[in-house]
Amino acid sequence: MSNESSGSINHGSERKTLILALIAGMCGDALLSWMTISEVSFSIFPVIALVLSVQALYQEYLRNPVAEDIPLVGLACFFVGAFGHSAFVKAQYPEAGSNFFSIIVALLLLLWVGKKLGFIGHSE
């Protein structure tokens, strides 16, 4: 019984990892937007959220085993957060540029993540 429980991967932990990667991507882009777009004002909250999400990701990495696809899917979730936040900021401030590229990249990455996680198509 102990071999079964130690060898299994916790799916709740995988979801938590992917959500934390998404939050880290959004916060990273919020800081980058503040540095590069003059209309965006500074806020301490993305800094706090970025530090806490990276710390929680590290703690989750130490606590639970990682499945094969999760690091790559986690990186994709990070970029979904970054490109999604970029599209949101550029929708708020149209003079910052077009958000078409950010939306397309975020949607393509979301489709790939959905396929890898088995939400799209048949996983066998």
Can you summarize this structure?
The chain crosses the membrane at residues 40-58, 70-90, 96-114. It holds the Pfam family DUF1422. It contains 5 helices and no strands.
Structure, explained:
The longest helix has 26 residues. The chain is an all-alpha fold. The chain is built from 5 helices and no strands. Keywords: Membrane, Transmembrane, Transmembrane helix.
Question: Which sequence of SSEs, written as H and E, runs from N to C?
Answer: HHHHH
Radius of gyration: 17 Å
Class by helix and strand content?
Answer: mainly alpha
Compute the average pLDDT: 88
How many domain regions?
1
Helix proportion of residues, in percent?
over 70%
- Tell how many strands the DSSP assignment holds: 0
The total of helices stands at 5
Shape: flat
Largest β sheet strand count, sense and barrel closure: none
| Low-pLDDT regions | 1-7
Q: How large is the share of residues in beta strands? A: under 5%
How many angstroms separate the termini? Answer: 26 Å
